[in-house]
Amino acid sequence: MDLTRPCLPPSSNPEEIAGWLRDLELIRQLMQRYACGVDTPDFEIVRSVFHPECRVEGTLEDGALGPYLEGIEEGLHQWDATFHFIGNQYVTIDGDEGQMESWCLGYHMEAKGSPIDDLLLALRYQDDVVRVGSEWRIIRRKTVKQFHRGPFPRPTIGPPTYPRP
Q1: Degrees (nearest 5) of the Cα angle 57, 48, 79?
Q2: May I ask the CATH architecture of the domain 14-149?
Q3: Global pTM?
Q4: How far apart are CA 51 and CA 15, in angstroms?
Q5: Where are the domains of the chain?
């Protein structure tokens, strides 16, 4: 993704600009929906943003989408609550393909009385996206850790005593 130049509409035609703006918004919503699904937690929402053939390079594991999401879902149940704030987003669109980089602060909160500190994780999600019908899906994701404060990965101290909903 070339961030030295802005992502511009394909032409000055108003109808093409409207379609481009729609695509831009739908692509940006992928990360908003992902964060909502992770934090609620509702993995039907999380899965809905990915193409079934998506490949992932994560912070702790790489590979196919299914095992990656299973690991995230299992891992999230270790915390009492999470909150993923999506900040800067950069999007490029080229026909039926695009790229998006989203900057995220992920707050991972321990239950009251836990001997483990909370975790703040700053990430950059680098996504390749494709058009599927009238929607967009993430076909490749690379997660880049900027920094963290608190234990990462979280130490295992036995099953949590505070199951998330």
Answers
A1: 65
A2: Roll (3.10)
A3: 0.90
A4: 27
A5: 14-149
